[in-house]
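Box S2. Input/output pair 1.
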Amino acid sequence: MSTLPKVAVDVTPESRAFWDGLARGELVVTWCEACDGHVWPPRDRCPACLAGPTTTRVLSGEGTLYSYTVVHRPDPAFAEAVPYVLGYVSLDGGPTIMANVAGVPFDRLEVGMRLRLRAPEGGADGPVGGAVFEPVPGEDATA
């Protein structure tokens, strides 16, 4: 149930809107206006139709747990956080991204459960942390 520590990331011009949005508690994805679809990972041109430049859209911050794993043998940077959960979250109206899932006991995790982006701890200052999702209160995988 651990939250991963913040680590510095290599922010590119294409990914800056995503990371800046995450620091504000928003999920910002790259969008292709020509295809009317998300572009993930962030890029300046759409890989489907090659249109560019891409724009950005703010998503709701909610999604569905597609798959997950409980990590017991981590990268050394995350050794103090074990065990923790990495999951693929299918974002409402957007891509499926890998993120930390916290705020739920491991035995209560269910594929299909509704999740929402957790507000960042400490705001936008300091090293960037990745997306952290937690269960949507009052919803479960069978709803």
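Box S3. Input/output pair 2.
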Amino acid sequence: MAVHAADYEELRILMNLIFLLTISTREEEEEEREKKKEERLLVILRDELQ
């Protein structure tokens, strides 16, 4: 079975898309963790001020 250059190009594009989606997901997860930390700190500050 012959493998054509177009097959390699499609595979390369798919691998790049998977890589970019993985990075995007990790960034979103990190942003969500930071948001939760900020919310916890705000609750602590609010409780201390009351």
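Caption for Box S3: Residues 5-49 form the longest helix (45 residues). The two ends are 74 Å apart (CA to CA).
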